[in-house]
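Inputs:
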Amino acid sequence: EAGVAQSPRYKIIEKRQSVAFWCNPISGHATLYWYQQILGQGPKLLIQFQNNGVVDDSQLPKDRFSAERLKGVDSTLKIQPAKLEDSAVYLCASSLGLAGGRADTQYFGPGTRLTVL
Amino acid sequence: GDSVTQMEGPVTLSEEAFLTINCTYTATGYPSLFWYVQYPGEGLQLLLKATKADDKGSNKGFEATYRKETTSFHLEKGSVQVSDSAVYFCALRRLYAGGTSYGKLTFGQGTILTVHP
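Outputs:
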């Protein structure tokens, strides 16, 4: 079974530039998550999709971050304009969602390491 | 809000030593509990999980028991190996209000484990 795919793996940009990340979840997984992991910290949720609808985006800085999940499969996360504090690893995860019950497991992609100079 | 607290790190052990990484949580309702591991240069992987009180999750010689009375989920291994060197994250997840979706993972800050030969 293929895992969660993400691209690019690394990205270096200057502040005020824009950047986009792509995620392809595990086939059949209804729920997709984007997390931000700052060095030395645990991941923190930015946005959660159930199929192509948003379930939770309460921690997403909506003035600069946006995300979409077209057709309930692939997703893109965009930052425009980037700030120095956006330097982090951006992780995409997917899970079955309610169909998985209480043991529903989130599977993570390898992440995109973003450096903002 | 929900929170997870892990023991301060980093932890350095000799091969075959006993490992304990403490994890306590605060959450409303009845969460599921997880340990994730991040090996150097790799993404987050599920290590083990427990979905109800007194459940014991186990995998690769690691164990953790869901203790509702002490709100804890401590990770243990009887004899660590050099290959266990990684960052370990404790996390919880619960249903969103209304039961329409399982929510985000709330992570602890991570504990770096280094095992020497």
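Remarks. The radius of gyration of chain A is 14 Å. Chain A has a mean pLDDT of 92.
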